[in-house]
Amino acid sequence: MKPKKTLYKNQEDACNKATSYLKTVLSKSKSVKEAYIWASLAEGKFGIYNKPYRDQTGSDIDLVIVMNEPISIPSDWKSTEIEESWFTLYHLGYFEYQGNKHRIDGLVVIPSKHDINMMKQLLKGRARKIF
């Protein structure tokens, strides 16, 4: 179970700065069709855990990335070998905010391989399109 966290006071500032950084990360691949921030960052629940959780001190960034084919995955996007019916998980690095590092999880969706309808269902009401 995740520990409680202290939310950043200015969620809009955190989201705007993260979004700007994420657009830079996304521009590394010409295959990105669209992208969404999902969960804590999109919902205004982004912050720092009150005690370490796994290898993290704060919220991770869930970034859902729908790709065009043919696929071009940047070499610095590291595959985690985790595959679900609607995405393949990549580690895209870190975003730093107020001196705290937040892991970026890239949930890469390939239309010919993954369940787009499931993706849309899960994102409904919990995501913000950024790209």
Concise summary:
Helices cover 21% and strands 43% of the residues.
Characterize the structure shown:
The chain is α+β, with helices and mostly antiparallel strands and 131 residues long. It has a single domain (5-129), classed as Beta Polymerase, domain 2, CATH 3.30.460. Helices cover 21% and strands 43% of the residues. It has 3 helices and 9 strands; from the N terminus they run βαβαββββββαβ. The chain has helices spanning 11-26, 40-43, 116-123, and strands at residues 5-7, 32-38, 47-53, 56-58, 61-67, 78-83, 88-97, 100-109, 127-129. The longest helix is centred in the N-terminal third of the chain and has 16 residues, at 11-26.
Bin the strand percentage. Answer: 35-45%
Q: What is the count of distinct domains?
A: 1
Please state the second-level CATH architecture: 2-Layer Sandwich
Distance between the termini: 32 Å
Query: Strand count, sense and closure of the main sheet?
Result: 6 strands, mixed
Strand/helix succession: EHEHEEEEEEHE
Can you identify the CATH class?
Answer: Alpha Beta
